[in-house]
Amino acid sequence: MQQANVSQQPGTSSLPDLGNTATAFAHKSNNELWQAYWLFRIIGTPWLTNLGSSLTKLALGLHLPVKGIVKATVFRQFCGGENIEESLRTARKLAKRGVGTILDYSVEGEGDQAAMDGTAAEILRTIAAAKGNPDIPFSVFKPSGLIRHDVMEKVSAGAALSTEEAAAWQQARSRVERICQAAFDAGVPLLIDAEESWTQPAVDALVTEMMERFNKERALIYGTAQMYRHDRLAFLRRELEQARAKGYHVGMKLVRGAYMEKERERAAEKGYQDPIGVNKAAVDADYDASLRFCMDNLDRMAVLNGTHNETSSLLLARLMQQAGVAKNDPRIHFGQLLGMSDHISFNMAAAGYNVVKYVPYGPVRKVLPYLIRRAEENTSARGQTGRELSLIIAERKRRAAGK
Ligand SMILES: Cc1cc2nc3c(=O)[nH]c(=O)nc-3n(C[C@H](O)[C@H](O)[C@H](O)COP(=O)(O)OP(=O)(O)OC[C@H]3O[C@@H](n4cnc5c(N)ncnc54)[C@H](O)[C@@H]3O)c2cc1C
User: 99-105 and 332-337: which strand pairing?
Assistant: First the structure.
């Protein structure tokens, strides 16, 4: 078996082998693998990514016929389709390999009330599509798709709202309530993403309120803890304490966090303490501690381990093993993004763990900001691209050797 260079800790032989590229890429034909190889080669080259992003934005702005190229390349790697219907086909394909789909409507930055009502209606459609469909075990939304950014920021800061802002906040709250109620009625667990720290207090308060209302029997509403923030372990402890006192369950998606540069820049510019941990090692330590915390409190918590980090994925598997918790325990999920870290998703799923992927979707033109961020993230996080590439190369060699 061709093995990619993926770290495995000593004494963990019964844990999933994340270096098994045959399982990781069984869903890809030779041609698809070749395309993925070139895509990661290109986005691993910063100047090409920057040039490609600018040219694509320009071309789409000028209504040049580039949609087909985008759709056949970067869109195909990272998105499930242009609408729910198309994405259901992607979901079926993933489900055949034991991986669940989370339909992630990835249209960004449409801040007016009508657009936010449209987004809420779309999220409700994703919940309807997930209802009774084992291929789609969760639904999700991004707060900024439903709540005006300036209003979230003011509520988070405890600032007074104007009459117009208070009305916008009420509208946003009712969108969130409607979505949580629909998820509850459909029996579909719902993830609520986390964004910038300066809008997060408003979101956290809303999530806590929804958990108290809908998580009496089990964790149905999940908040998100960005463990790159040095205050998040204390946050987790507070959330759990409150849930125990009031008799409900905490659902938590753990992630490291996607906005580090922006957070550090704003803190420096405005002169407040940087909310992000001092370095990667400190963030990793908090991440590990948060996994242990959730496992120690599984009687009241459910966790989604949202990471592309092999060590974090294997650590949770090891903690489950040590605690004698079944691999498919409904309170524990592993999550990755479509088109990334397939070696984690498919090897964990093949070993019997609950695995889900965010499957972003939307019209090509509208998901472009998401795609550009994916490309840029893979460019800046050279480690990630290197990992993806080395795995793809290993699998191509394995297939060529006919092993
Ligand atoms: C299913 C899923 C859902 C997600 N949902 C969200 C969400 O709701 N909100 C959100 O913000 N992100 C979300 N993310 C993205 C996530 O936060 C990370 O950006 C991404 O997964 C990379 O982190 P990692 O754990 O995979 O891997 P790693 O490669 O181990 O870690 C990279 C991360 O470590 C941190 N880091 C890197 N260098 C430093 C440093 N010098 N100092 C401090 N920290 C550092 C950063 O957070 C960086 O993104 C989600 C990811 C997944 C897979």
Answer: unpaired
